[in-house]
Design a protein that fits this description.
Elements (H helix, E strand, L loop, with lengths): L1 H35 L15 H16 L5 H14 L4 H13 L4 H22 L5 H90 L5 H28 L18 H13 L4 E6 L8 H21 L5 E7 L3 E8 L14 H12 L3 E6 L5 E8 L20 H31 L6 H7 L6 H8 L4 H7 L11 E6 L8 E10 L2 E11 L4
Helix pairs in contact: 1-11, 2-3, 2-4, 3-4, 3-5, 4-6, 4-11, 5-6, 6-7, 6-10, 6-11, 8-9, 9-10
């Protein structure tokens, strides 16, 4: 069943690619028809194939090259390049396959070899097909090939290489960021667990001692009430057993939280921890170490506050001052503690101009642990650089501690792309590709329009009556079937027994009128030159 599903997905992908390629080719064909349709006359001398059936065969080969460019990129590039030499109007197909080949990862020698071969192959085809042609036509075909190769081959390939390198770089950066994100998350989780272990140790020191006293006094009450008996004895036994059960449950909870983790051992807690005197001692210790620290305490002392709150205040101030010692040893520091009726706010701000102590490493895990401790108490902690180049650590802790877990994770994995977003992305990519193809065709048209063309007016002025047919063909080339077809029905009668050649006059042709020169030979000598103006059919 899974194999069938994979095959179905693969077939659907191939069908989707084929439809997308056909749509891209339709856009390219429309652009070629619009831009080159009326100017096809002056492209005649750039074609190595002039028969309609041959041109259709070339167009079919170009379509096939686009369709097979994914499984056979190198073959598709060479085939499209060779066909573009035969008919420059298939240059859009060359651009598509060259861009796709550039997107693929490829070694530099192989990429250079493929690019060189894609340019050398059409040059060889053109050289072989122009043997014996007059110099002006050969020069024009070479110029047209160079323009087509640069616009439709080299430029799309270079753009594809740049885009492919960028996409691969972005993919590598995304993978690296994902790995760093996972590693950072694991490190932060470890820091949170350590902080919870410290909190568990504090609970053990605080609650364990008091529960032990309750159990001890309950045991004494039980012994004292044995003589009285009755309800007093049963109540004392209940209190004693409940206290012992609470001690047992507390040990279980602390074991889960990791209170016995040696890495989580915290400093001894005292009744003065977190009070104004304790914070003043921390500030005084920093002054002794050479830090310019000022303390601003607003509101009542915290000596009667919840022990967990006082412990958090002590940890915030101590960690912030430790970071100052590490990273801004000579910066001025301001410690502000403000107690209100509902919470206590701590802010430690250091200014700019500190000299970091490089031999004291820091990884911000202390702040991560602080954030976890404050969060478990229902508060918030903010640590960030200031606009003046300093750093600030600010915490708000409710006086009535309550846990409020949750909140957004700054390291949360980015959301995956939804189906609607994927459809939109594919649509934008398709439109971008279509616009790129139209741009290539337009650029090719503009470039070919500036290629010097051997005008027929110059040919008509240079040729003399009496010129032999062989000399005429040697100098100016064979008759153009397309020009002959254009003049048919619009020309005067030929001289008796004459053989006539037809050539377009691009210098005098306009968007509405095609000018054809007719050269008639009798007994192998030029006897007549006619200029025919033929109106182009309205589109």
């Amino acid at each position: 069943m899974r194999t069938e599903r994979r095959e179905h997905v693969a077939i659907s992908g191939i069908r989707g690619h084929a439809l997308a390629d056909l749509g891209l080719l339709a856009v390219a064909g429309a652009a070629v028809a619009v831009l080159f349709g009326w100017a096809d006359d002056w492209l005649v001398d750039s074609l190595l194939v002039d028969h309609p059936a041959a041109r259709w065969a070339v167009a079919g080969g170009a379509v096939l090259a686009v369709l097979v460019r994914r499984p056979l990129p190198a073959t598709a590039v060479l085939v499209a390049a060779g066909l573009a030499a035969a008919d420059p109007l298939t240059g859009a197909a060359w651009a598509i396959v060259a861009y796709s080949a550039g997107l693929r990862p490829m070694s530099v020698p192989r990429r250079v070899a493929l690019l060189g071969a894609s340019v050398a192959l059409p040059a060889a085809v053109t050289a072989a097909a122009t043997l014996g042609e007059r110099a002006a036509i050969v020069q024009y075909r070479i110029n047209a090939l160079v323009v087509t190769a640069v616009v439709c081959g080299v430029l799309p390939a270079l753009v594809g290489i740049v885009v492919g390198q960028r996409e691969r770089l972005l993919a590598a950066l995304r993978d690296r960021n994902a790995s760093l994100r996972r590693a950072h998350r694991a490190t932060e989780e470890r820091s949170r667990l350590l902080e919870r272990s410290r909190i568990a140790r504090e609970m053990h020191d605080l609650l364990g001692h008091r529960l032990s006293l309750i159990a001890l006094h309950a045991g004494g009450l039980e012994l004292a009430s044995r003589s009285a008996g009755g309800e007093l004895l049963s109540t004392s036994v209940l209190v004693h057993s409940t206290a012992r059960q609470a001690m047992h449950e507390l040990r279980g909870v602390l074991g889960v939280l990791g209170a016995d983790d040696p890495a989580a051992r915290s400093d001894p807690w005292t009744e003065a921890t977190g009070t104004r005197a304790d914070v003043a001692d921390l500030v005084a210790g920093s002054r002794t170490a050479g830090i310019a620290v000022g303390l601003d305490w607003t509101g009542e002392d915290l000596d009667h506050a919840d022990p967990a709150v006082r412990r958090a205040v002590h940890r915030v101030v101590r960690e912030a001052l430790t970071n100052v010692h590490k990273h801004a040893a000579s910066a001025p520091v301001a410690v502000a503690v403000r107690r209100t009726g509902r919470d206590v706010r701590i802010e430690v701000r250091n200014g700019r101009g500190g000299h970091p102590t490089d031999d004291m490493p820091g990884n911000a895990l202390g702040l991560v642990g602080l954030r976890e401790r404050v969060r478990l108490l229902g508060g918030t902690l903010h640590a960030a650089p200031t606009v003046d180049g300093g750093f600030t650590v600010a915490a708000t802790i409710p006086l009535t501690a309550h846990a409020e877990p949750g909140g957004p994770d700054p390291l949360e994995e980015p959301a995956t792309e939804t189906p609607a977003q994927g459809t939109w992305t594919r649509a934008v990519t398709a439109v971008t590709m279509a616009l790129g193809v139209v741009g290539v065709v337009a650029l090719q048209y503009l470039a070919l329009a500036f290629v010097p063309y051997p005008g027929d007016d110059t040919r008509a002025e240079m040729v003399e009556y009496g010129t032999s047919y062989a000399d005429f063909v040697d100098r100016f080339g064979l008759s153009s079937p397309r020009a002959e077809a254009t003049a048919r029905g619009h020309e005067p009668d030929r001289p008796a027994g004459a053989r006539c050649d037809y050539h377009f006059s691009t210098d005098r042709s306009t968007a509405t009128t095609a000018v054809v020169h007719r050269y008639c030979f009798v007994d192998d000598e030029l006897v007549e030159i006619e200029e025919l103006a033929v109106a182009r059919p309205a589109e």
